[in-house]
Hints:
The protein is an alpha/beta fold and 140 residues long. The protein has 4 helices and 7 strands.
Amino acid sequence: MCGSGIENFNTLLTTITHRTENTTNSYDKNSKLFLYIKSWCHNSKGAAAKLVKEGFKELTLFDVEKKKYVCPEKWTDLEETEHVEELADAWFHKTVPQVFVNNSSTWSFLPGGNASVQKVTVGDMKKIEQAHGGEQQLKF
């Protein structure tokens, strides 16, 4: 799982830039995830650990300060350089983690960062319910 392959990269960049929120609300554990992180940040570590624990196979982490990909399981820097400059240039948020999900070739922004990720449980193609004012569980 330690890799930086990003499917539909140009769509991801557009989603990052416009912060396109999820509209389908439907994901599964085979969905691809991309997170902007900072290696020293406990919220970034917590979000990545939760997604690894839940069994997401395609999880890409990008450290915005180091401009490097990070292995989610080992929390080590990767030497891969594909799209590094574009991802660094697209970053404009102040907080991390910023979570983006690709389901069926469509990237979307998952608001709430680590707080939303901590509510994730893996199911078989169950609906995700955004936590807007309530203690709802996010289901993948």
